[in-house]
Batch of 2 targets.
Target 1
Amino acid sequence: MAATSGEARRAQPVTTTAQVAQSRDVGAYRQLTLLAPGVAQTARPGHFVALAIGDERSSMLLRRAFSIHRAAPGEAGTVDVVVADAGPGTHWLSELRPGDEVAVLGPLGNPFPVPTAPTSCTLVGGGYGSAPLFWLAEVLRDRGCRVDLVLGAATEQRLFGVETGQQVADSTTVTTDDGTTGAQGRVTDALPQVLQRGRADLVYACGPMAMLRAVTEVAASHGAVAHVAVEESMACGVGVCMTCVLAVRDDDGCTRMVRSCVEGPVFRGDRVRWDAWQDGLGQVPADALGAPSGGH
Amino acid sequence: MAATSGEARRAQPVTTTAQVAQSRDVGAYRQLTLLAPGVAQTARPGHFVALAIGDERSSMLLRRAFSIHRAAPGEAGTVDVVVADAGPGTHWLSELRPGDEVAVLGPLGNPFPVPTAPTSCTLVGGGYGSAPLFWLAEVLRDRGCRVDLVLGAATEQRLFGVETGQQVADSTTVTTDDGTTGAQGRVTDALPQVLQRGRADLVYACGPMAMLRAVTEVAASHGAVAHVAVEESMACGVGVCMTCVLAVRDDDGCTRMVRSCVEGPVFRGDRVRWDAWQDGLGQVPADALGAPSGGH
Amino acid sequence: MGQEVDLSTQLAGLRLPNPVMTASGCAAAGRELQQFFDVAELGAVVTKSVMRAVRSGRPTPRMAETASGMLNSIGLQGPGIDAFIAHDLPWLRSVGARAVVSIAGGDVAEFRELAQRLGDQPGVCAVEVNISCPNVANRGLVFACEPASSAAVISAVRAVLPQRIPVLAKLSPDVTDIVQIASACVDAGADGLTMVNTLLGMSIDLDRLRPKLASRTGGLSGPAIRPVAVRCIWQVYAAMQAGLLTQVPIVGVGGVRSGGDALELVLAGASAVQVGTAIFNDPCAPIRVRDELAHELAQRGIARFTDAVGRAHATPAPLTPAHTTPAPLDL
Amino acid sequence: MGQEVDLSTQLAGLRLPNPVMTASGCAAAGRELQQFFDVAELGAVVTKSVMRAVRSGRPTPRMAETASGMLNSIGLQGPGIDAFIAHDLPWLRSVGARAVVSIAGGDVAEFRELAQRLGDQPGVCAVEVNISCPNVANRGLVFACEPASSAAVISAVRAVLPQRIPVLAKLSPDVTDIVQIASACVDAGADGLTMVNTLLGMSIDLDRLRPKLASRTGGLSGPAIRPVAVRCIWQVYAAMQAGLLTQVPIVGVGGVRSGGDALELVLAGASAVQVGTAIFNDPCAPIRVRDELAHELAQRGIARFTDAVGRAHATPAPLTPAHTTPAPLDL
Ligand SMILES: Cc1cc2nc3c(=O)[nH]c(=O)nc-3n(C[C@H](O)[C@H](O)[C@H](O)COP(=O)(O)OP(=O)(O)OC[C@H]3O[C@@H](n4cnc5c(N)ncnc54)[C@H](O)[C@@H]3O)c2cc1C
Ligand SMILES: Cc1cc2nc3c(=O)[nH]c(=O)nc-3n(C[C@H](O)[C@H](O)[C@H](O)COP(=O)(O)OP(=O)(O)OC[C@H]3O[C@@H](n4cnc5c(N)ncnc54)[C@H](O)[C@@H]3O)c2cc1C
Ligand SMILES: Cc1cc2nc3c(=O)[nH]c(=O)nc-3n(C[C@H](O)[C@H](O)[C@H](O)COP(=O)(O)O)c2cc1C
Ligand SMILES: Cc1cc2nc3c(=O)[nH]c(=O)nc-3n(C[C@H](O)[C@H](O)[C@H](O)COP(=O)(O)O)c2cc1C
Ligand code: FES
Ligand code: FES
């Protein structure tokens, strides 16, 4: 199994008001380029930002979390995010125009751990879940890794970054549920072949929970370790509210309800208690530390 | 006493989404030109509109009321309002830019009653309260009336429409509390002389309650009738909520708590129970119909 | 799309073409809204709570805006029952609107008298009893705060009204145990429950350093309180399902601004829904909510409104053991 | 401008440099916020309610956004008192923060034990007793819903804590008569009252047609509930002024997002203010609220924070008879 570096994983988050430098449609999504040098400086692939919706009079109090698609440090210091218009908050963000302002909090969470030595890696993205993978691919390639990419979505419009993938990865495989482009099927249908071809030791995945679970299982059956970025509802993003927990086994095999915002969002797939997660509900396993719950 | 026409006073209000055609600073205020043909068509001086703040996710549920400064019927059909940035709602409105949309409800309320025969009229405006008076002045002049204007404010910046006044009225007198322009003092200091000079039979006033009261008294002492536009907090603007009431005597001398949105906002000054209004509180006079209150 | 959905609903024998009503005190007696849409198209118009005598209400300011809500302290200003019967009821009949008449009183006798007066009036579809008003005999404590005084009012009203007129008890959320109050009302003969009235709230004027409302406290309404309304409806509906109280229809009210909001109350257990404060933002809100509700139901493939009532009480899918086939992606 | 104002306040013998605290459960034990500002600059850090044992909390989703608010159902996930004493308290001491430790229990014995453990720990400035948790012995009814069980918890805690550590009883607004509960707590020895905890609420997922929270109901917080918090503070403060219960300081909490919001609670009667949900919108909210509060006071010419406490209770100027001199214009 490949060693991954744990150094300097968490970054010092900052709160800042960013100007929107660009906003453009990319398939079914909207890509925002935000001027946020303080965030861009320390961001690494897998970090996320939390964007506030509206001003201090907004009826939507909670920030929305977005994987950083790409950060360009430097004086201008931009951070790109890819937004799916899924509800009122993301809708508000989708309508931002260049020059508008948005409050940004980040970089948050733990980024993808990267191998210390050249390793063969397969990156799997579902829908907008591919957003952080291209930057990760570049970082991995810079370290001498082989990178194979698998991108899937329900339909062509909901794929993100296929062209970029073709530029940054050694191979790019595309699947769609409806077969509008690429192979018809799921990413996990294509994954075994990609893993075999690339002899991957490491798998990185970002997308819906059901996909992450399946990717973890396929990776394991091919002797690879999966690092998956989960997406739990988060109220604070910084570790103070305990809304974003997930059942995860620690080194000693003990299951704890850990905060995905600060102890994740990237977890080793084989540590996540997938059996406790279904249909949008995250159960507290009976053997978890401090289970069962009572009180409120 | 001059006869005023009561015909066709209330208009059929409509709800519409208006585009902002123009937004510009005028002294301390912001003048908005809204494309609202349905409203412009039936509006008359003294009518008001109620503007919604933000969209269906706004935390500010209640509309804000604004006197119509001027309505230009026709195909384009514009309505102008003059907005003082006094709080979060008016601040939001002040920041609207051409092309933005705002929900408009109007025309609401009863306009200023206009005399059926040529009459000498004095119009008194305090601060942005002068906004509806210039259009009124034009209507009065069209009917052969003499129009003297008295405009007052705390300071020069808070006067509205002095130049327009000089164009549309027979005379324009300006007062400021701090003497930055015009005579130092209040509108009621200047009013007696204007009334005498113009031999006014009718006085129209719009501004803060304390001013309206004083104007009513000065008018009475000069044998003139005052029509004043009051400004009560309004939740609905259309007569269904009962928040906007004011103690007013009817023809028989009986005091009732009447809705200023539909039975006003223009009242005969000598009918308003000024004794029941002080320091932002509107009391229910003990002799009012249905007083005293209990319950909730 | 909307046309496919059967919106009709049943409230204790009263059949309504659709479940959307105005909330008491937010639509006067319907006349002013007729300028914007035909109030006869609503499920019903619930009129402002009327008392025996003409009332001038509370001093002003009577309202204050709050975050996603507002406070009001109108003080039940109104013309009194005689004028209501002489002017408002006939008008509602003349336009073909279904009238649910809300009544309020300072003591049981006043409630009884109001119900008596209404019992033989044509055009009264139902009587909603606003028990969230102060009981003059009990230090001004509102009736709805105590099971016994709530029950006393409801049974007095039920006793004098003809059986064909359903009695809806309108409950206050400001109680420790709403199921207890609901239970007392149902036992006393309420044919349905309207939930909820406003929450008691207050707001301070930071310039004048005093309460914004002349009456200091007022009723909090609007989207801010919707989670409380949903919870109250849920609790009482669940208690009915569990057999803890007799099943009667619930009329949901509190923070409904859109068809989706209305659906939330319905899924929690409401057989009809009232629109209140949202009218002040949009005078067309009640009829818009009706149309949006039809659309929301159609989108979800629910052909009959009544199939949605209480639907969220169906237990969420239990967690099954780990299995390796992932659900189809819907990215 | 802010510097001119003396922000210090007194809570039952505990002197704080300023009145702004974090709200329990919204700042963990302070460590995460230290990344954004120095928590020692706050009046105090109120820690997440701790129980005897480690607790994994409730299933997810544990939160839902609502209009100007949110619902949560964390279920008091936490490390248990031993780990809290071993890790969190020493950290707070190490950075010089004032710690108000919130405790929760399923029965009186658990509360007592927690207080006992904390009594001899250095760095405990005050203990806040979260009585809004279910009483396992009483069908899970929360302690704060009944005067007797509230009093039982408070007197047990007060009895075992050294006198120098003030006990704050944290009340639930979900009661018919908050003055009654406040009174019971003060009689049982509470040195102060924290008002209010969340309101019980619920939200339905319109796609899944089931409650959004896995635990169905949850606590409603945020600006939406501020009018309820202000009203509760006002009622209890007024009752104290009227001599109906012993005067103790009130710590206000509920919907504070800005210094102006904090001032609202203060004018209603709060001697200190907690910031909760607003932290999720802005992790710097507590320190920003402190600065904004200083500014709001300075703007109003109030040189000492304590002069603002309860100020809105001064009766509004009575209406004097008609006079003809108008007040100066301020257009
Ligand atoms: C670590 C992380 C990274 C993410 N990266 C991206 C990304 O790159 N691009 C993207 O489009 N979306 C991303 N999401 C999901 C995104 O945060 C949600 O789509 C968004 O919060 C929905 O907000 P809304 O107001 O549009 O929807 P609503 O459903 O109205 O939101 C209501 C509340 O639920 C929360 N919520 C709703 N859906 C989700 C969700 N899927 N995940 C977490 N919280 C949710 C919201 O934050 C909000 O608090 C990410 C989420 C997480 C946790
Ligand atoms: C008939 C009428 C005509 C008006 N014409 C004008 C005009 O031409 N230009 C102009 O600038 N303003 C006018 N006003 C006042 C304007 O409506 C208020 O300034 C505005 O509502 C304040 O909103 P806000 O959100 O900025 O302030 P906030 O104080 O935050 O408002 C909070 C709530 O109080 C109400 N409110 C606050 N101040 C007033 C007030 N002075 N009068 C009525 N309600 C108030 C608001 O409508 C809102 O519901 C008029 C008011 C009325 C009733
Ligand atoms: C201005 C106003 C007046 C009200 N008057 C009454 C009333 O007379 N009788 C009554 O039962 N409820 C009254 N209510 C309460 C509403 O009917 C409704 O229960 C409450 O406002 C919650 O619904 P909403 O959020 O849709 O407004 C009033 C509410 C408002 C805002
Ligand atoms: C996520 C979350 C967790 C909370 N946990 C606790 C808790 O453990 N103990 C407690 O007394 N109150 C808890 N509360 C309630 C808050 O301390 C506060 O009383 C309430 O949220 C109202 O204040 P706010 O509107 O500023 O959030 C919690 C609130 C939230 C939002
Ligand atoms: S989102 Fe608050 S702890 Fe993770
Ligand atoms: S503002 Fe509603 S009745 Fe006048």
Target 2
Amino acid sequence: MSEPVSAVKNAVFSGIVRVEDCGPQGMITLRSDASNAKLKQAVKVVIGADLPPVRGISANGDRAVAWMSPDEWLILLPYAEARAAEAELRKALAGTHHLAETVSDARAFFRVTGDAARVREVLAKLVPVDLHPARFGTGEMRRTRMAQVAAAIWLESEGEARVICFRSVGAYVFDLLSAAAANGSEVAFFDA
Amino acid sequence: MSTRLAQGGRFLNRARKVNFTFNGQHLTGHEGDTLASALLAQGQMMVGRSFKYHRPRGMVASGAEEPNALVNLGSGNRLEPNQRATTTELFDGLTATSQNHWPSLEFDVGAVNTYFSRFLPAGFYYKMFMYPRAFWKHVYEPFIRQSAGLGRAPEPHVRDEDTYEHFYAFVDVLVIGGGVAGLQAALTAGRAGAQVLLIEQTAHWGGRAPVDGGTVDGKPAAEFVDAALAELRGMKNVVLRDRCMGAGVYDHGYVLAYERISDHAPGPAGPRHRLWRLRCKQVVTATGAIERPLSFAGNDIPGVMLASAVRDYAVNYGVSIGDRTVVVTNNDDAYRTAITLKGLGLEVPAIIDARAGGGGALADEARALGIRVETGKAIAKVKGAKRVEGVAICAQAGEGAVLEEIKCDAVAMSGGWSPVVHLWSHCGGKLTWDDAQAMFRPNADLAPTGAAGEAFVIPAGTANGYMGLAEVLADAAAAGVAAAKAVGAKPKKAEAPQASTPDEAPIEPVWLMPQGADIKLRMKAWLDFQNDVKVSDVQLAAREGFESVEHAKRYTTLGMATDQGKLSNINGLAILSDALGQPIPQTGTTTFRPPYTPISMGAIAGEARGKVFQPIRRTPLQDWHEGQGAYFEPVGHWRRPYCYPRGEESHAQAVAREINQTRGSLGMLDASTLGKLIVKGPDAGKFLDMLYTNMMSTLKPGRCRYGLMCSENGFLMDDGVVARIHDDTFLCHTTTGGADRIHAHMEEWLQTEWWDWQVYVANVTEQYGQIAVVGPDARKVLEKLGGMDVSKDTLPFMAWADGELGGIACRVYRISFSGELSYEIAVDAGHARALWDKLLESGAEFNVMPYGTEALHVMRAEKGFIMIGDETDGTVIPQDLGLDWAISKKKEDYIGKRAQERSHMTDPRRWKLVGLETVDGSKLPDGAYAVADGKNANGQRNVQGRVTSTYHSPTLGRGIAMGLVLNGPDRMGEVIEFPGTDGKTYKARIVDPVFFDKDGEKQNV
Amino acid sequence: MLILECPYCGLHADETELAPGGEAHLKRFGPGSSDDDFEGYLFMRENPKGVHFERWRHANGCGKWFHAARDTNTLEVFGTYSAQTTEPPQDIKDKISARRPGWTWREFA
Amino acid sequence: MKRYSVFAVAREAARYHTGWERAWKSPEPKKKYDVIIIGAGGHGLATAYYLGKNFGIRNVAILEKGWLGGGNTGRNTTIIRSNYLQDPSAAIYEKSRSLYEDLSQDLNYNIMFSPRGVMMLAQTEHEVRGYLRTAHANALQGVETRFIKPDEVKKLVPIINIDGPRYPVLGALWQPRGGTARHDAVAWGYARACSDMGMDVIQKCEVTGVRQEGGRVVGVDTNRGAIDCDKLGIVVAGHSGVLAEMAGFRLPIESVALQALVSEPIKPCMDVVVMANTVHGYMSQSDKGEMVIGGGADGYNNYTQRGSFHHIEETVRALIETFPMISRLKMLRQWGGIVDMTGDRSPILSKTPLENCFINCGWGTGGFKAIPGSGWGFAELMAKGSSPLCDEFSMFRFREGKFIDESVAAGVAH
Ligand SMILES: Cc1cc2nc3c(=O)[nH]c(=O)nc-3n(C[C@H](O)[C@H](O)[C@H](O)COP(=O)(O)OP(=O)(O)OC[C@H]3O[C@@H](n4cnc5c(N)ncnc54)[C@H](O)[C@@H]3O)c2cc1C
Ligand SMILES: NC(=O)c1ccc[n+]([C@@H]2O[C@H](COP(=O)([O-])OP(=O)(O)OC[C@H]3O[C@@H](n4cnc5c(N)ncnc54)[C@H](O)[C@@H]3O)[C@@H](O)[C@H]2O)c1
Ligand SMILES: Cc1cc2nc3c(=O)[nH]c(=O)nc-3n(C[C@H](O)[C@H](O)[C@H](O)COP(=O)(O)O)c2cc1C
Ligand SMILES: [Zn+2]
């Protein structure tokens, strides 16, 4: 098998924050009724993390599960492990109505790092989301609109945000984030 | 002459000089100057010409309300027309030119209009220029247009070099206006713990109070401002922002704020403007008040200025407007100007107070300074043309009989104050007329309401109609408390600092000066300085039946200029009310609309320009296409290669080459944009039976079926190949444009109609790159890569299989849109390029070529396959296209079935799909219609069909087309006529739409 | 610029995250239905200046459809609720009655 | 009525314009009229005018709840064109456009019809084919249009950016005698002419109920009392749903906000009307110098005459991309109107389930251009019960599946 290529391979921009492509990332879309008795266990066993609460993301090392909608989760894990995990999930959920599809290649994935307030404000230039530290913190997965496309964001830690979008608009989102991070464009709204 | 005073100027840093040019002339000002104050300091009072009569215009105001002092700022890629000199902070290298004159500001040919002004009253153009008819287009309109506009239009090739951005912020309390009221409201709300954003449009905090005087807790107002700022800056829950204007208040607490980041210091990196898109739980509008001019003859002559502005220039910028300033007023506030000027050693020959009883404590103070005060008097007329030379005085109660002339070079006028209620009003806040103070003020009972029906805007200070400093602070503190409470904070009782100002005598409304001014005076008494609307114009409108204030506005253009009537509206509607003999509140105001002052288009567009104007969707092979110099066509947000021209080839030649190669041997297409939707669950088959017109539940795993989807309205909306993956899993291909639409369509039906059906849908469009390998040598090239059995028996037509090719995992569909032996290979997008490269490499011996969308279109047309968007256009049903075979007769229901039973849908006269071949082999023009005999009731030529797609077929060496024709399928062989727009008529024969390989032998090998 | 609470995410979503979907609680009429019923279902719309029930989708969010009760004249939102229901819930109807005494729903036919 | 002319203006100038008479009277409503028209927008007034002019029906009242012309007629971007695709549309819009040509003279009121040309840009291959189709259709419909090449586009509109890069201009559908007119003047001119014919234009008169007996309309209730009539025409655009409810029927209509904005005035720089539908923006320059810009419609029912700001953003960024030189111009004012959108986005000119009650609505985002033609046809429909200009626009077409859909080529409505 060839080496997988991410949407905006190795892209990096440095301005008031650093924006970079995270490279290939394993992802699985998992759909099931939240009340499915096997679901919690399946996720726990395969990913090692608990099902997150509404809008949550719960991690276990390099694996994580994010709430996407009442009957949908996104599973994050190393790229190479996605297909196998998909199969395991299917097996664990066999006999119940569910869907598990690998979507690693369908997404672009970015990391935005730097001063905590700067990271928030770069995102706040693009998403209609209240990113005030009092109301948005780590552990929350936010699906939203980023300029003209759909995206999901969360804080890995203060000073490090992650952005997921569709692969085809990866370059667009990278360019957006870079523009928002242009030197001289500090907002200083979250600094107080 | 206006000039710089030796001392004073709160805002000035006299130590730093700033160089700029005006109309090419090199001038200097100081750091802290506005362009207006710097020009005035240089004696440059006249800065432009009015819109209609090209009258000389000078500054009348000192801030955002300025109607006259508009300049072309900068040049070339940085030219900004209509920039207000009064809000333009001076910077080194600033260049400005004056507007609306030819050949020069001083000598303007257009000024002849002023002599004809008698012939050009409000609305004159509705009554003239009608005869002879042809003259409108060729004489009148060009003439009118020539004189249109104010600022210079940027050159066609101009590209703005600056960047712009947006910022989303969510706040508990937004306070708009950084005067004492805004500061106090922010303090109160901030102390209560609410999260506060305080914005101020200028570069200075404190608003009018430091200029107007008064004390707060025994100290000068300026000290209160400093202390308040210090405290606010220390609060973690408060953000302050200057040069940031509240531009508009919208529904559900949405507010736009316009931050001018680098207008005052262009150059360094970063955006020029930032548009804040705020969501606020509560908005406090502490936007202050705007002084009104008085309407007397000649009130537009340069040198006549608002009294507060005269004061501002003196105190803030150390600029005197004249050596001898006559003050004219109907209220006490203007006395402050006289007192200030006198204190600076300037002459104030008289204060003309229209009130018979005159003023209060300030009047006494003025008199004590030796200023002559005339009460019950008015200005009959201002003398001068390009500059005030004197005023003629009369009794306010009379008709203008001149009592005396006073020499002066400036007039400071005050007609009272109007609270800035714009932001309160944008989103539905109502006003009430305050008779005692002669002003409209916010009606607190009819505030704008938000998402929960709650009032979300609170006016404060002068913006709420409170004029005295003490009242202003008390009201602002109360507003801060109310706002804090509304957002759930726990404010202490409003404690406002104690303020004191001299007692003032009440204002007496003066809408016309003198009260009985005759028509000649009224024709010279300006209401709207920029648009040249005079008292007589509004009176004319009333006389002609334009009684609604909205009619009067539109008929006279009052308030429609770039200042949006900040100075003129109230005066205008008072004149209108008087003319109609009705009280002012019955007349009402026109509608306040955003933005408060104009905001740049660049800021509105934000970051969305150039590269990120719109998302461009890229397939995993996009880099390769770009590298090949493909010619792209936009399809939705994708850009798909239309063809890959080589060397000097034309597009048509490239397309022909690509087709010939593909049909002859081997071609490859990037089909990644096709939608791919996984539909899974126990009810997936049943669900797809409802979505497609054909039966999908009977499809066998491992097999593919072409399907049609209709809207509930019966029209064909999408098509594509469905593959059954497992018993409970299907993969539905959609058109390129259809992926998101059809995904949403499926979710909609599942969530809102059949929510008890067990089906999940996932959009995996972008998970896969999809490569079509097409042509007689297709199998050979796959076999060469090796890894899976792609033989006819193992992988027959309309089957699919999972496997590996050249070591890359993939899924191969044997489907064909070209009529050739064809494999569509889906591969994880991250590996698509690798597979593509391998295919190119092993296809080299077959001279493999990529082909673009146009070749795809031609090849499908040669085969008579329909294309969504060509054969369909939203009005076509599958039955029109002879696709009855794909409409299940067994199903009771599918989306669109009921609609297709309606009388017009079953009408035998619906046009049906046929092939068309020109008699001479040429290509039928795109979009041509077939004519029938006669004309319809509306005199239009009858038609009997139209071309839906048409191409030159390189395979057949002739033009081929498809079309919808009345009774078409029954008229095979008949020749019908298509008039072109080129004057020719094209004759075409009705034929079978399958032009090539009718029996499908090529694809079935 | 509306804000609606997505009942699934529990978020007050900006209008730009949402996609509007027209009148709510339409009853589908399929094959065999009368012309009147079909026309009523597919085209005829309540278009009140006042209380309106409508469909929205949290398109740039969880992707779920939901219902909103809103006043088209003041843009007040009385509440949002599940899409999987054929009628507005009683508590929302009560809330509307409190704020808009005398309002009716689908009385007019 | 005293005629308007340059001589009249000169005469009046001599006496300081004190002698002008009212443009329209301000009568009290009578007890009964032959015909009542609800709504003194362009369409209502034009209907009344042609009822009088073409059919001699002059005992007519036009009832307006606010100020005449204050609805969408007073807030639209004034584009006039007739390059529509479908026959019924082309017929009524071209009739309208041709009436506009002489309207100033006909009404003796300068409505400033400016046939400066309307250009609809083709920015995708699909749009090119769509406009070629329209051009062919127009040729057979007697509508003068032409598909032009990019270089001609650039010549006509020097400020346009034809090279993209995102959406290069591939050509345009050009209607040389499309253009604009002064929107307020259209309402005022018709009102003056109606008033002059003896009709009553009654402002601040809101219809609050439609009275019927035995399935026929007999009159209306208003805030100024009940008024009887033999025939009723409902011409209230965004409020059609509200009036239909009063009259006891439903419409395939939803009312939504459509927005527009103007820039500050600048010296003339664009001589034609340009519509760029791929990116959703259109722009013209008024005779006063503002750039007049139309935005998109909201997707939700709304009666507030405000809209959601993101549509303005979308439009402005599209226009900056198309006309880069506007980036440093400033938006002076933005506003909204409530437009009545039908199921196929084409208008309704129709009898209704209530006898003698007629409705003219559904012009949505594009009815200013149709005012004279719609008035002409609707008057005929009201007077005679049928009109070739209107018959296809029946409100019953939806149940038959007989749509008049203009969006099919690359068309849009404005
Ligand atoms: C922003 C915008 C841009 C547009 N751009 C264009 C364009 O460029 N070109 C184009 O051709 N069209 C355009 N249009 C559409 C066009 O403005 C309308 O189609 C047209 O003006 C409708 O005219 P009308 O007479 O039917 O309605 P209106 O002018 O709205 O008149 C209806 C009248 O009915 C009155 N009314 C309502 N209810 C009652 C009642 N109960 N009792 C009494 N009176 C009542 C209203 O007050 C109103 O005055 C645009 C519309 C908008 C909003
Ligand atoms: N006695 C009188 O007749 C009279 C009249 C007017 C003002 N005053 C005095 O003026 C002071 C009023 O204080 P105040 O705070 O109410 O008003 P203010 O005018 O002092 O302050 C208002 C502030 O709001 C800003 N502003 C206005 N619109 C804005 C917008 N859209 N966005 C951002 N900023 C905006 C202005 O630039 C100004 O700084 C008091 O000292 C009062 O006594 C007296
Ligand atoms: C074609 C056209 C041109 C306009 N030009 C101006 C203008 O130059 N200045 C202005 O203030 N408003 C202008 N307007 C907007 C009107 O002032 C007003 O906002 C609009 O008619 C809607 O009315 P409303 O805001 O009173 O609701 C224009 C409107 C139209 C339709
Ligand atoms: Zn949600």
